């Protein structure tokens, strides 16, 4: 099932580009890894046993970014396949889909959900996870199975194999793909919140980790050019982002609250989880399993000096 509860976190820089950030909706995890949402089934592409069978094989779609962690993800994935097959092959249909470039994971995920996959599992870093999460939505709504009579939902899973893999840190996971596969095999499930951020006049972006604007967002952008240096890429990215940086006024709205103006913002971070930038605990109070946005932080003036935004209890 997918419970979608919207908070409205609308951010708008005054007199400049207009943003609107909307925050958490909720994906209720239903399977294996934490995170899952329900978006039904049908199985034309990801074949399992027929629906009349007493035990239905689950269809798991692994969305692999071969270029993640400067190519390490692709190499590790190949080494992992025999283990994956041995742990899951007897109960599940395993479908591997390699991404060919940015945003491809979004399309793969949408297609898999529409075709009725039981789980879509991101294999890579936070960028890949982010794209897979966005693939669960289309035009502001959860993607649904073509087969409207299907009873099962699609879960979201993760095998963290990226450079930073910061979302997994919040869950206390190591960057150990075998452990992740074991979690999938054990069928561990949890509920995970998802945030929504939208720039005014543009579409929504869903986020599961930390959404950020301005300096830290630029740092993340520049860091992507230096992934070959591992987590050091985030330091290099931050240094580069500082060059020519100017603070900016922001106009924001959180949930159903009033519009507020934040003056001369260096960076603003909205945390659904705690870490970004390869282990920087930027929003320490955030809890992606809380079912609410308590702990959400708007960071003003400096990235390190977080400022709590109004909190609201999620009505679920
Ligand atoms: N085949 C590809 N070639 C180049 N880039 C790709 C390809 N497939 C996906 N991408 C892009 O690579 C980006 C980064 O990948 P990913 O997050 O998996 O690894 P990472 O950046 O090393 O990890 P982290 O984000 O945790 O630091 C993705 O957001 C995606 O846009």
Automatic annotation (TrEMBL):
List compositional bias (Basic and acidic residues) regions by residue number.
Answer: 296-310
Q: Record's GO cellular component, any one?
A: membrane
Supply the InterPro entries for this chain.
ATP-NAD_kinase_N (IPR017438), Diacylglycerol_kinase_cat_dom (IPR001206), Lipid_Phosphate_FormReg (IPR050187), NAD/diacylglycerol_kinase_sf (IPR016064), YegS/DAGK_C (IPR045540)
Q: Which SUPFAM superfamilies match?
A: NAD kinase/diacylglycerol kinase-like
Which SMART domains does the annotation name?
Answer: DAGKc
| PANTHER family in alphabetical order | SPHINGOSINE KINASE, SPHINGOSINE KINASE RELATED PROTEIN
Could you tell me which residue ranges the DAGKc domain spans? 55-201
- Keywords associated with the record: ATP-binding, Kinase, Nucleotide-binding, Transferase
- Which residue intervals make up region (Disordered)? 282-316
Transmembrane portions of the chain = none
What is one process in the GO biological process aspect for this record? sphingolipid metabolic process
Source taxon at top rank: Eukaryota
**The protein, known as:** DAGKc domain-containing protein
Oxidoreductase recorded as keyword:
no
Q: Keyword Repressor, does the record have it?
A: no
Which terms in the Gene Ontology molecular function aspect does this entry carry? ATP binding; kinase activity
The protein's organism comes out as: Gossypium barbadense (Sea Island cotton)
């Amino acid at each position: 099932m997918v419970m979608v509860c919207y908070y409205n976190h609308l951010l708008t820089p005054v007199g400049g580009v207009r943003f609107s950030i909307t925050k958490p909706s909720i994906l209720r995890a239903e399977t294996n890894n934490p995170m899952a949402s329900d978006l039904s089934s049908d199985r034309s592409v990801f074949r399992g046993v027929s629906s009349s069978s007493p035990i239905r094989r689950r269809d798991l779609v692994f969305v692999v970014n071969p270029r993640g962690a400067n190519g390490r993800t692709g190499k590790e994935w190949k080494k992992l396949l025999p283990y994956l097959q041995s742990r899951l092959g007897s109960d599940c249909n395993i479908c591997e889909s390699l991404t060919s470039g940015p945003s491809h994971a979004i399309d793969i995920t949408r297609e898999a959900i529409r075709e009725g996959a039981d789980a879509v599992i991101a294999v890579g870093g936070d960028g890949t996870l982010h794209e897979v999460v966005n693939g669960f939505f289309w035009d502001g709504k959860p993607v649904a199975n073509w087969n409207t009579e299907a009873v099962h939902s699609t879960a979201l899973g993760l095998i963290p194999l990226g450079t930073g893999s910061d979302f997994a840190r919040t869950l206390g996971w190591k960057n150990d793909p075998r452990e992740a596969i074991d979690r999938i095999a054990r069928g561990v499930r949890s509920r995970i919140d998802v945030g929504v951020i939208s720039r005014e006049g543009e579409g929504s972006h869903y986020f599961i980790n930390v959404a950020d604007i301005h300096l830290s967002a630029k740092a993340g952008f520049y860091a992507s050019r230096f992934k070959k240096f591992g987590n050091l890429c985030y330091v290099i990215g931050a240094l580069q982002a500082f060059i020519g940086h100017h603070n900016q006024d922001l106009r924001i709205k959180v949930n159903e609250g009033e519009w507020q103006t934040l003056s001369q913002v260096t960076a603003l971070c909205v945390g659904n989880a705690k870490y970004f930038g390869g282990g920087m605990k930027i929003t320490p109070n955030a809890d992606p399993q809380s079912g609410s946005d308590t702990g959400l932080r708007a960071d003003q003036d400096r990235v390190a000096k977080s400022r709590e935004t109004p909190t609201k209890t999620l009505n679920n």
